[in-house]
Each structure stands twice: as structure tokens, then as C-alpha cells.
């Protein structure tokens, strides 16, 4: 019985290593593909974006990879093209983002009473 548990425990640890290796291979493939589709300046800009907001950089990378795989990219993406893509994504996120507007009603300002008292002094 103990041997079965030990064997199951050892295979369970192997699955974790396999998953880590799979993630590493996927990350390497992403990096390789991004090197193929980005100019060095654009890759540098994307790296700086990653330092500030990793989720935005990952989103842009996913979009670029999708465009490359669908054949919509004819040449390497320049820094200017990357800026345009960033602007388009920012506009889209602003539209999707819900804004809460708080409307305050006038006439309930207690400071007016204080100002009236100070004028009399």
C-alpha cells in the first residue's frame, strides 16, 4: 500500500515538472515569435510597457501574435505601428470601461452660512 502511495506521489511531482516545462516551451515560442514580428525598437517599447503594466503588454502581445498567425502582418511591426496599436487598444478600453458619475445637488452648502457670519464680524 505504501509503495502505491509513493509511486502516485512521485508521478504527481512529475506532472508539475511537465507543466512547468510546457509553460517554459510556450513562453519560449512566444518570445521567438515576437522577435520575428517586432523591430528592436518596438520590442524595447513593449518591454518598457511590461515594466509599468504587465497585463497591457500581455494583451498587446496576444493581439500581435493573433495578427501574425492570421497572416495580417506583412512586415515587422515598427515602433510607430506599435504606438498606433496601443492607442487603439486604449480607446477601446475607455469605451468598455464603465464610468460612475456622481451628481451633487446644490443648496446644501453649509459654508454659505459661515461666510455670512464672518461678514457681520
Helix/strand layout:
Layout: H1 2-37, H2 40-52, H3 54-69, H4 79-96, H5 111-120
Helix pairs in contact: 1-3, 2-3, 2-4
| CATH-defined fold name | Helicase, Ruva Protein, domain 3
**Second CATH tier, the architecture:** Orthogonal Bundle
E-strand count: 0
Poorly predicted segments: none
Structural class: mainly alpha
The share of residues in extended strands comes to: under 5%
Shape category: elongated
Q: How many angstroms does the end-to-end distance come to? A: 93 Å
Report Rg.
28 Å
Output mean pLDDT: 82
Largest beta sheet, briefly?
Answer: none
What's the helix-strand series?
Answer: HHHHH
What percent of the residues sit in helical stretches (DSSP H or I)?
A: over 70%
| Count of distinct structural domains | 1
CATH C-level class: Mainly Alpha
Q: Could you state the CATH homologous superfamily?
A: PDCD5, DNA-binding domain
Region (Disordered): 1-35
GO cellular component, one term: nucleus
GO molecular function: DNA binding
Pfam families: dsDNA_bind
Structure explained in plain terms:
- The protein is an all-alpha fold and 121 residues long.
- It has a single domain (2-120), classed as PDCD5, DNA-binding domain (Helicase, Ruva Protein, domain 3, Orthogonal Bundle).
- The chain contains five helices and no strands.
- Helix 1 crosses helix 3 (54-69), helix 2 (40-52) runs antiparallel to helix 3 and helix 2 runs parallel beside helix 4 (79-96).
- The longest helix is centred in the N-terminal third of the chain and has 36 residues, at 2-37.
- It is elongated.
- It starts with a helix and ends with a helix.
- The mean pLDDT is 82.
Amino acid at each position: 500500500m505504501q509503495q502505491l502511495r509513493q509511486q502516485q506521489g512521485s508521478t504527481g511531482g512529475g506532472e508539475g515538472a511537465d507543466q512547468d516545462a510546457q509553460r517554459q516551451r510556450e513562453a519560449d515560442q512566444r518570445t521567438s515569435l515576437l522577435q520575428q514580428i517586432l523591430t528592436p525598437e518596438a520590442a524595447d517599447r513593449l518591454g518598457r510597457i511590461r515594466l509599468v503594466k504587465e497585463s497591457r503588454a500581455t494583451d498587446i502581445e496576444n493581439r500581435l501574435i493573433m495578427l501574425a498567425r492570421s497572416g495580417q502582418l506583412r512586415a515587422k511591426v515598427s515602433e510607430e505601428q506599435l504606438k498606433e496599436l496601443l492607442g487603439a487598444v486604449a480607446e477601446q478600453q475607455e469605451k468598455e470601461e464603465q464610468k460612475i458619475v456622481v451628481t451633487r445637488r446644490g443648496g446644501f452648502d453649509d459654508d454659505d452660512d459661515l461666510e455670512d457670519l464672518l461678514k457681520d464680524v
